[in-house]
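ok trying this again, last paste got cut off
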Amino acid sequence: MTTAILLLALALGAYIVAVLESWAATGRLRPAGPARAALRLLGQDAIAPRKRDDLFFETGPILLLVAAILSLAVIPLAPGLIATDLATGALFFNAALAYVLVALIMAGWGPDGAYAMIGGWRFLGQLIGYAMLVVMPITAVAMRAESLSTVTIVTSQQGLWNIVYQPLGFVLFAFAGMAMAFVPPFDLPVAEAELAGGVQAEYTGARRLIFRLGRMVLILSVASAMTVFYLGGWLGPWLPGWAWSALKILTVAGAMLAGGRMLPRIREATLLAWCWKLGIPLALANIFIVGVLVLVVPL
């Protein structure tokens, strides 16, 4: 029963994220838009490049979807409503999403196309920049909860949400999460205006639909992690826990998609420089500050 509820929530959440992405891009709210787009892709001829690497070309979109779904397995929507409550759930989340890089490199290399390959290597540049900015804020979150369990992290915020306790960590994780999900302004791997779709440029039909679904689930996963790590997860008055989780996750996803388009796009080399020269020192400062608060003023 729990598995069926989680699968239904996953499908509905991914669809709503697709609606929000369309709204952020066009300014028009079209609830039926993703369904029509999916039907068009299913009816489209599945054209494959002549000199493709079959293994990489076919596996890339599927691996992206699998990695995003696995990362959601440790995200609780309510007490008892979680696929797998691991003692190291926070680390598992980061480990699962490490395969997003593998998926995009495969999707970039497999078609043997210039635009796709450039998009894949661009994402590698982003990964080198944001990877530490995902792990280090999670470290500070785990320090306060004294656990890597995502359920324990939520319950540790009963008195005060982590967005208030460690706002610097939230900002760093938010930007790193947007880069992980390659949403604007970190959409260099797909860059429609420059690369005609980048890593997804050579995909058509059902393959492109799987790739897009994987990206929607990935955005949902990042928004869910921000909700669990910093916004108190299911905690909230009056409404049931699952409702609070849904409201927070969709609000974060909408803010990511809409807010990111207001920021200028930056090159992967610039992102790398900012992350290592500014982001990592700030993340270390955040860990130090949280460590002092945990020891001196526990909340």
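PB: full thing came through this time. The radius of gyration is 19 Å.
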